[in-house]
Task: inverse folding
């Protein structure tokens, strides 16, 4: 592989460019008009403008991205996360244009994007799944029978949803018919697919996911877990590895299940098996067929560059650097720094960054595309930096994160830095005793803003 086009922007575009540079691979950036002064444009060997600000006219414009790859003679496209990363049609178009898509096959993206199908597939592979319907609910009658047998509360999920989109909790039979019909109608409106499935509803689960990577020789490795329970409205805010509740014994079981899941579908490239964790038990929820925002915590504890591994696998090489005896070392935490006001319900705070200084020192990594006087465009997600720390244990990682957050200077806009400073002192976070509901019970309006 000689040249890779990065079909993305922001910190992840920089992240991929860095891996390519170290591998001696040339890079092509694509950018929208307002992103012309972005660092991904400056750091890439070549850059092609693919349209105006709105994503559907630029970063989601498949003919634009493919044309950019063709005129620059790129061998491969790395989609990053978001945008076209889990678009099966895009992966298909890449293949038909003889451009390698750095990710799994289009068929894999389609199959794992169908959440009920993915769950049924994993169930057959003896990966633990949440009790509920076997695949889609054929009718309301089936919904009622299944709910009766697993017991209320239940959750109805859109098969084309995922990541928290298109879900409805039902607590008693009297509400089931309405919820079932509404769920189908909403799913049709949002995804053009009214397929829904049912599960037993867990009130206070944790979200724990396992990083996997597979090569074309049938090798699949699991690189431990990430604890992702600290989130708000399905937007993760803090991730860490290892999870404070996962023992060596549970980790072995989770990683074995994740490897079984990936092998059962002949998965190639990087992926994530998402588990719902409750009282020592874990259940498959979804598989993500992309590199994720939080991949650096896994990189920190395993000392491995996941993007380089993705590129190697796509080039048809064996995963020789990773092996079953690969060990985790220490503890890593990532705080997502968003251009949002945490005291005002995390409302977006775009605009011009006046001052910007990133923390440094031992065990600190900052992945960011922001700089002083950078103008945050209003068109894209609000992530402006990822602050990742690595320490010998969880305590050291928390102390290091507090220290690093204190060094972070962002002026001119609101950011989530004050929220993270507050969380590093939260007793539940410190003790590791939390779940996906933690932030619902905290009043964030009184966090001191550093403006
Ligand atoms: C659940 C659940 C409880 N019980 N399924 C939300 C994201 C999507 N991947 C699945 N989600 C959930 N599925 C059952 N059977 C609770 C959630 C959920 C959640 C999961 C992970 C992280 C944050 C969450 C926040 C609210 C609900």
Result:
């Amino acid at each position: 592989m000689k040249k890779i086009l990065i079909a993305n922007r922001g910190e992840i575009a920089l992240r991929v460019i860095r891996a390519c540079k170290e591998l001696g691979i040339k890079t092509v950036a694509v950018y929208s008009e307002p992103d012309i002064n972005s660092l991904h444009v400056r750091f890439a060997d070549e850059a092609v403008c693919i349209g105006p600000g709105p994503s559907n006219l630029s970063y989601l414009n498949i003919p634009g991205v493919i044309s950019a790859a063709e005129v620059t003679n790129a061998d491969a496209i790395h989609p990053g996360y978001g945008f076209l990363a889990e678009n099966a049609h895009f992966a298909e178009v890449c293949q038909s244009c003889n451009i390698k898509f750095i990710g799994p096959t289009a068929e894999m993206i389609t199959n794992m994007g169908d959440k009920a199908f993915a769950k049924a597939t994993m169930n057959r592979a003896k990966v633990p799944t949440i009790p509920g319907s076997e695949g889609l609910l054929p009718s309301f009658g089936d919904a009622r029978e299944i709910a009766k047998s697993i017991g209320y509360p239940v959750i109805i999920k859109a098969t084309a949803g995922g990541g928290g989109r298109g879900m409805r909790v039902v607590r008693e039979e009297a509400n089931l018919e309405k919820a079932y019909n509404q769920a189908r109608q909403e799913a049709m409106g949002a995804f053009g697919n009214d397929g829904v499935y049912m599960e037993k509803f867990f009130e206070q689960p944790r979200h724990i996911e396992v990083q996997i990577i597979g090569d074309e020789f049938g090798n699949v490795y699991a690189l431990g877990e990430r604890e992702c329970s600290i989130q708000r409205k399905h937007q993760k805010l803090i991730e860490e590895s290892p999870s404070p509740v996962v023992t060596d014994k549970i980790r072995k079981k989770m990683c074995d299940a994740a490897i079984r899941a990936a092998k059962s579908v002949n998965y190639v490239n990087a992926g994530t098996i998402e588990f719902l964790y409750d009282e020592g038990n874990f259940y498959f929820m979804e598989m993500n067929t992309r590199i994720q925002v939080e991949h650096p915590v896994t990189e920190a504890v395993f000392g491995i560059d996941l993007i380089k591994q993705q590129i190697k696998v796509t080039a048809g090489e064996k995963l020789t650097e990773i092996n079953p005896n690969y060990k985790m070392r220490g503890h890593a935490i990532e705080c997502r720094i968003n251009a949002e006001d945490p005291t005002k319900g995390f409302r977006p705070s775009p605009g011009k960054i006046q001052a910007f200084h990133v923390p440094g020192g031992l065990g600190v990594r900052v992945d960011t595309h922001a700089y002083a006087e950078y103008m945050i465009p209003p068109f894209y997600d609000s992530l402006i930096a990822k602050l990742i720390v690595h320490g010998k244990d969880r305590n050291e990682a928390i102390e290091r994160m507090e220290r690093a957050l204190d060094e972070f200077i962002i002026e001119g806009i609101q950011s989530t830095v004050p929220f993270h400073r507050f969380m590093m002192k939260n007793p539940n976070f410190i003790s590791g005793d939390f779940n996906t509901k933690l932030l619902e019970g905290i009043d964030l309006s009184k966090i001191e803003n550093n403006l």
